[in-house]
Amino acid sequence: MNTPVTWQLFDGCAVGYDEHRPRYPEDVFDILSRYHMSPAPIRSAVDVGAGTGIFSRQLMQAVPSIVKLTCIDANSDMATIAKERSTGFNGLDVKVGFAEKLPLPDGSCDLVAAATSANWFDRPLFFGEATRVLKPSGTLLLLQNNHRYWESAFLDDFYSFQERHIPGYRRGYYSDSVGGYGKADFETELRSRPDLTAVERHNVEWCQTVSADQFRGYCHSMSHMKKAIDRSGAAAIAQEIDALLERHQNASGDVAVEWLTDIVLSRARL
Where is the Methyltransferase type domain (predicted)? Predict the structure, then answer.
């Protein structure tokens, strides 16, 4: 396997990533609890492409039956912050590693999760690894926090800005494993696999109100914003983000970010 280099796009931005990236709605964990049908509750889990451990920490808080959770990311900066921010979580272990070659034994996990990260993976290889480390009937959980740009003038404007400055990028596309952009239809991909079954998809809509400074921080935590800065220059990008915020912020200087959390689940076949 050729070692991917896309993870290097997050070098140096781990602190801002942890501070400004959104968390996940509580409905995710209710859906997971209803779906997981293994004979035993979720006791062992892995969060793949975990970044700074945002979802890992939420998962341990929301699913108290978990006694061991492995938080894996390819970027050492991200893994360092994940370790620092997760010291109070007993049983949470952070490793540097790749989704395509998980550093875990066969049949060791009740749950494999990838939160706003699976688009980065070589997914056929990752799905094979996920089924390898899952126990029989264990759960694979894929979720993405997406913007509802079709319902928000602010986000529509934000996506037009990105499309102007990021070569190859367009709304509805995701960063991929080779540094480009493309579709990521997890549901269809999972339904096509003989080693996975019982595929379900759920959507959760929610809204987050953030300050202008928080939104700027979020922008700079995005991997492809680095591409925009490399292409157009930091000053030009900062000026456009400021103008975007001035057009859409309310009297308090805040903007509303409309989110859709897309959830796809499946089970390892017996």
Answer: 46-141
